Amino acid sequence: MKIVVGGGSGFIGSALVPALRADGHEVLRLVRRDPTGADERRWDPAAGDLDPGHLAGADVIVNLSGENLGKRWTDRRKRAILESRVSATSLLARTAVAAEPRPTALLSASAVGAYGNRGGEILTEESERGTGFLADVVRAWEAAADPARDAGLRVVHFRQGIVLSDVVKRMLLPFKLGVGGRIGSGKQWWSWVSLDDLIAGYRRALDGDLDGVLNLTSPNPVTNEQLTKALGRALSRPTVLPVPAFAARTIFGEMGQELMLEGQRVLPARLLAAGFTFGAPTIDVALEGALAA
């Protein structure tokens, strides 16, 4: 296949692009600077600038674009989080429709934040959307693909959980020093996925039998406390120094509340029904892989 990737230089894209090429696909990356290689094409999502010729003849477009969530959410930062996702998705969808010949599918990153803070409620793709900043972002983010969907392209929205290797990288130093611990009560559910399984999910969706919303999370979500204890076991370190909820709110503000103290218990029902097999279905197996990487 010929695949065009937006956001290919980010954390996920840096793993996905070489995996797709290893599968034998031709991959073109959309970049925001002047191209430096034959596999790059320039675009500017903020300015709405993308030549339809860059997408012409592609089989699939993969959209991974969006500002990082892991910084304190000022009003300016929140606008950037929303606008970066909506502008990139809308531009790709509209330009795909204008390309000749058109691509047949758009695979777009999304997030389990769509469900809001739901306590221990088990959530599948059939569950209602929730409330909160991230839920509002996801609503606009997914709706931005409507031009492609309305024109008959197959559109997939991957509601991704926490990528385990990324969160472990952020937690590793205090845990190695023996000062790691749960955040707040630790009872908030964290739906996670290994990087390898996330990449495998995108590769699986290249087939034409999946569309719409797909939860891309491990079938075994854990609470923050369970993750904390599992990481402590993996590192043979104590996990007895919790981060109080007020400290997370004070240091990280609204971001600390939604990403650290709240959560979702999400199951990948549609992927499982499609026969998808997770290589790292449990937290202990996934941590072993993440720490060895």
What's the helix count?
10
The CATH architecture designation is: 3-Layer(aba) Sandwich
What is the terminal-to-terminal distance? 29 Å
Please give the domain count.
Answer: 1
Number of strands: 13
N-to-C series of helices and strands: EHEEEHEEHHEEHEEHEEHHEHH
The whole-angstrom Rg is 19 Å
Kindly report the spatial arrangement of strands forming the biggest sheet.
3-2-1-4-5-7-11
CATH topology: Rossmann fold
Strand content: 15-25%
- What overall form do the CA principal axes indicate? globular
Offer a quick outline of the entry.
The protein has 293 residues and is of the alpha/beta class. It is 40% helix and 17% strand.
For this entry, give a set of tags.
293 residues, 7-stranded parallel β-sheet, alpha/beta, Rossmann fold, single chain, globular, two-stranded parallel sheet, 13 strands
Task: Explain this structure.
The chain is an alpha/beta fold and 293 residues long. The chain has one domain: NAD(P)-binding Rossmann-like Domain (Rossmann fold), CATH 3.40.50.720. The protein contains 10 helices and 13 strands. Helix 1 links the parallel strand 1 and strand 2. Helix 7 packs across helix 10. It is globular, with a radius of gyration of 19 Å. The mean pLDDT is 96.
